[in-house]
Design goal:
230 residues; alpha+beta; 4-stranded mixed sheet; two-stranded antiparallel sheet
Amino acid sequence: MTERDVPAANALERVAALGGHFTVAVRDHPPPEGGWRQVTGLYDPATDALRDLVDRTAGRLGTDDHRVAASILHQGYAARLWSVVLGCTAATGLVPILNPADTYWRSTEQSLVELLTVTPSATPVGEGPLDRTARLVAAGALDAHVEPLATAVRTATGVSALVGTLRVLAPHGLGRMPTDIARVLFGTPALRDGGTVDLAAEPPVLRRGSCCLFYRVPGGGLCGDCVLQA
């Protein structure tokens, strides 16, 4: 077990002040109890962990359609990871590295998914080109967590979740960095076909290119990014 990277831990604690979606608990050692499990189990469709969480999601949504539950679960999970990684980068100048092998999740009555990471590290943004920062953010959120879960549940990668993160960050006075990074990310293969994004709008606007299935949740209606609301 490596020693705690104090700047990384402090950066994650600072961004957590923005709200629950930006919160990842930080520990020096793997949690011995409390229902915590490695997130790698969620990224394997053959495990009980993923099936159990989809079942729990379906129960909270009041639906028997597990395809709907998987889609909504992924959208919420992606929002958490984008919020933590992009929010921390914009607020502190450090891109957090949440190694999946050292990151844990649990489900409680209060929260469908809580996250915890052990001895995280971070990479300073510095004065380098924006493309480099965007690549670091993509590696920390998209490559390490969002895409593996999307593959496991066979759903879209999560453009909507990234736009949602920008909307939440907007009132916090973090400048143009979140939007500028997102603009680069939306040009990457994993995200470019997820919908039509207007980053100049306040707040940013997305019209999805695929359906999140929220309309099939009892009483759900249409999601805020639905193409049918254009």
